[in-house]
Amino acid sequence: AQKITQTQPGMFVQEKEAVTLDCTYDTSDPSYGLFWYKQPSSGEMIFLIYQGSYDQQNATEGRYSLNFQKARKSANLVISASQLGDSAMYFCAMREQGSARQLTFGSGTQLTVLP
Amino acid sequence: EAQVTQNPRYLITVTGKKLTVTCSQNMKNEYMSWYRQDPGLGLRQIYYSMNVEVTDKGDVPEGYKVSRKEKRNFPLILESPSPNQTSLYFCASSLTSTRNTIYFGEGSWLTVV
């Protein structure tokens, strides 16, 4: 079974609008962490935001926030006030405390910001 | 500055010609791993190492070898590359497997013809 599912292969958003990128996950480990990474066309992986399974509040980092719904096993990334520079591939990933495997990634969402 | 360095960054090679992608970290991290990225599949872990002389298979280890003779280096070896190993490869490092700060290399674009 897929551990991380990103159902939106591609998304478009108008500049200055907010956009939500979906991520659902599957784990039986009670302790885990969820990550979002941005990958611009140059290829490097840029860490955006992290949410721990025991964190009470949703994580926020500047224009990025993570909408964490534990019961639904979802960890959606919200980007507010989109900018042209936000056009990139976005990956959701999970780390399970009981696993030595570090990160399991979703298939990614290609976000395009329109002027 | 904490850094993971991969070489080469770009390579076109021919089927069957052995190649090594090097990965080096300038921290004292115990954990290192290799991922490959393919369209529609995201990043998948190839091999990982929890410390010197300790390596284990990830999700897609076939066709690859690794070694961890010293803490800073974790080379990825393709003994007989095939076209299906054409991919973008990332080396990653963290203090341990459970630490949230994960350093990625810049990626190595490998094409096997």
Number of strands of chain A: 12
Instruction: Specify the structural class of chain B.
Output: mainly beta
Tell me the helix content of chain B. under 10%
Radius of gyration of chain A: 14 Å
- Put simply, the count of helices of chain A is 0
Keywords:
heterodimer, A: 115 residues, mainly beta, six-stranded mixed sheet, four-stranded antiparallel sheet, B: 113 residues, seven-stranded mixed sheet, 11 strands, 0% helix
Explain the overall architecture.
- The complex is a heterodimer of chains A (115) and B (113).
- With 115 residues, chain A is mainly beta.
- Chain A has strands at 4-5, 10-14, 19-21, 24-25, 32-39, 46-52, 60-61, 64-69, 74-79, 88-96, 104-105, 109-114.
- In chain A, the strands form three sheets. In chain A, strands 2, 5, 6, 10, 11 and 12 form a six-stranded mixed β-sheet that branches.
- Chain A is globular.
- The mean pLDDT of chain A is 95.
- With 113 residues, chain B is mainly beta.
- Chain B has strands at residues 4-7, 10-13, 19-25, 31-38, 42-51, 54-57, 65-66, 76-78, 87-94, 103-104, 108-112.
- In chain B, the strands form two sheets. In chain B, strands 2, 4, 5, 6, 9, 10 and 11 form a seven-stranded mixed β-sheet that branches. A four-stranded antiparallel β-sheet of chain B has the order 1-3-8-7, with no helix packed on it.
- The termini of chain B are far apart.
- The mean pLDDT of chain B is 95.
- The A-B interface holds A 4, 6, 9, 33, 35, 43-45, 47, 50, 52, 91, 93, 95, 97, 99-108 and B 31, 33, 35, 40-45, 48, 50, 56, 58-59, 88, 90, 92, 94, 97-98, 100, 102, 104, 106-107, 109.
